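re the bet — no i am not wrong, look at it urself. input seq straight from the record:
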Amino acid sequence: MNDVRLFGVLTKDPSIRHAEKEGGYDIARFTLKVEQGAREDGKNYFDNINLVAFRKMAELVEKKLKKGMAVIVGAHIHAGSYTNRDGERVFSQDIVVDKLDIVMDTGLENMEPEAMQAMPEVTEGYMFSENEY
Protein backbone atom coordinates (compact mmCIF):
# COMPACT_ATOMS: atom_id res chain seq x y z
CA MET A 1 0.00 0.00 0.00
CA ASN A 2 1.34 3.42 -0.96
CA ASP A 3 -0.35 5.77 1.50
CA VAL A 4 1.12 8.84 3.21
CA ARG A 5 -0.71 10.92 5.83
CA LEU A 6 0.82 14.03 7.30
CA PHE A 7 -0.28 16.67 9.76
CA GLY A 8 1.75 19.86 9.76
CA VAL A 9 2.10 23.57 9.15
CA LEU A 10 3.05 25.22 5.85
CA THR A 11 6.50 26.78 6.18
CA LYS A 12 5.89 29.29 3.36
CA ASP A 13 3.34 30.08 0.66
CA PRO A 14 3.08 27.38 -2.04
CA SER A 15 4.96 27.95 -5.30
CA ILE A 16 2.92 27.44 -8.46
CA ARG A 17 4.08 26.93 -12.03
CA HIS A 18 2.45 25.98 -15.29
CA ALA A 19 4.05 22.96 -17.00
CA GLU A 20 4.13 23.74 -20.68
CA LYS A 21 5.73 20.51 -21.93
CA GLU A 22 3.59 18.10 -19.91
CA GLY A 23 0.24 19.11 -21.42
CA GLY A 24 -0.11 22.48 -19.78
CA TYR A 25 -1.22 21.64 -16.24
CA ASP A 26 -0.46 23.44 -12.98
CA ILE A 27 2.07 22.17 -10.45
CA ALA A 28 2.12 23.35 -6.82
CA ARG A 29 4.98 22.72 -4.42
CA PHE A 30 4.95 23.40 -0.71
CA THR A 31 6.63 22.29 2.50
CA LEU A 32 5.04 21.05 5.72
CA LYS A 33 6.74 21.29 9.10
CA VAL A 34 5.79 17.97 10.74
CA GLU A 35 6.45 17.11 14.39
CA GLN A 36 8.50 13.94 14.89
CA GLY A 37 8.46 13.68 18.67
CA ALA A 38 10.55 14.61 21.67
CA ARG A 39 14.27 14.12 22.11
CA GLU A 40 15.92 12.96 25.30
CA ASP A 41 16.11 16.58 26.45
CA GLY A 42 12.29 16.80 26.19
CA LYS A 43 12.25 19.26 23.28
CA ASN A 44 10.19 18.42 20.20
CA TYR A 45 11.86 18.19 16.81
CA PHE A 46 10.43 18.56 13.33
CA ASP A 47 10.96 17.47 9.74
CA ASN A 48 10.30 19.67 6.73
CA ILE A 49 8.48 17.51 4.17
CA ASN A 50 8.32 18.66 0.53
CA LEU A 51 5.01 17.98 -1.25
CA VAL A 52 3.76 18.40 -4.81
CA ALA A 53 0.22 18.73 -6.19
CA PHE A 54 -0.88 18.52 -9.81
CA ARG A 55 -3.73 19.81 -11.95
CA LYS A 56 -6.94 20.59 -10.00
CA MET A 57 -5.31 19.89 -6.64
CA ALA A 58 -2.57 22.40 -7.55
CA GLU A 59 -5.23 25.01 -8.32
CA LEU A 60 -6.84 24.30 -4.96
CA VAL A 61 -3.50 24.59 -3.16
CA GLU A 62 -2.87 27.93 -4.88
CA LYS A 63 -6.29 29.31 -3.91
CA LYS A 64 -6.62 27.97 -0.35
CA LEU A 65 -3.19 27.51 1.28
CA LYS A 66 -0.75 30.02 2.72
CA LYS A 67 2.17 30.09 5.12
CA GLY A 68 1.30 29.12 8.70
CA MET A 69 -1.82 27.09 7.93
CA ALA A 70 -2.24 23.73 9.66
CA VAL A 71 -3.31 20.99 7.26
CA ILE A 72 -3.77 17.25 7.05
CA VAL A 73 -2.58 15.77 3.78
CA GLY A 74 -3.34 12.41 2.21
CA ALA A 75 -0.75 11.52 -0.41
CA HIS A 76 1.26 8.83 -2.14
CA ILE A 77 4.92 8.49 -3.03
CA HIS A 78 5.77 8.59 -6.72
CA ALA A 79 9.17 7.32 -7.85
CA GLY A 80 10.35 8.42 -11.27
CA SER A 81 13.31 9.35 -13.41
CA TYR A 82 14.20 11.87 -16.07
CA THR A 83 17.16 12.93 -18.16
CA ASN A 84 18.60 16.30 -17.16
CA ARG A 85 20.13 18.94 -19.46
CA ASP A 86 23.54 17.26 -19.22
CA GLY A 87 22.11 13.97 -20.48
CA GLU A 88 22.39 12.29 -17.08
CA ARG A 89 19.61 10.12 -15.71
CA VAL A 90 18.20 11.49 -12.45
CA PHE A 91 15.99 9.49 -10.11
CA SER A 92 13.41 11.24 -7.99
CA GLN A 93 10.75 10.60 -5.38
CA ASP A 94 7.85 12.96 -4.81
CA ILE A 95 5.13 12.96 -2.20
CA VAL A 96 2.04 13.70 -4.33
CA VAL A 97 -0.99 15.25 -2.64
CA ASP A 98 -4.27 13.42 -3.23
CA LYS A 99 -6.40 14.81 -0.39
CA LEU A 100 -6.26 17.90 1.77
CA ASP A 101 -7.99 19.15 4.89
CA ILE A 102 -7.41 22.60 6.37
CA VAL A 103 -7.33 22.22 10.16
CA MET A 104 -6.56 25.82 11.12
CA ASP A 105 -6.10 28.74 8.79
CA THR A 106 -4.06 30.72 11.31
CA GLY A 107 -1.39 28.15 12.08
CA LEU A 108 -0.38 26.36 15.24
CA GLU A 109 1.84 28.96 16.89
CA ASN A 110 -0.61 29.46 19.76
CA MET A 111 -1.77 25.85 20.03
CA GLU A 112 -0.67 24.01 23.16
CA PRO A 113 1.36 20.79 22.60
CA GLU A 114 -1.32 18.76 24.38
CA ALA A 115 -3.94 20.04 21.92
CA MET A 116 -1.75 19.08 18.96
CA GLN A 117 -1.43 15.53 20.29
CA ALA A 118 -5.20 15.34 20.75
CA MET A 119 -5.88 16.05 17.07
CA PRO A 120 -8.11 13.29 15.68
CA GLU A 121 -6.68 10.53 13.50
CA VAL A 122 -7.92 11.17 9.98
CA THR A 123 -8.76 8.08 7.99
CA GLU A 124 -11.28 9.44 5.51
CA GLY A 125 -13.53 12.40 4.91
CA TYR A 126 -10.95 14.93 3.80
CA MET A 127 -12.39 18.30 2.96
CA PHE A 128 -10.79 18.39 -0.50
CA SER A 129 -9.71 15.56 -2.76
CA GLU A 130 -8.69 15.50 -6.39
CA ASN A 131 -11.52 13.09 -7.20
CA GLU A 132 -14.14 15.46 -5.80
CA TYR A 133 -12.64 18.82 -6.78
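see?? The longest helix spans residues 55-64. told u. also The CA atoms of residues 73 and 100 lie 5 Å apart. so pay up
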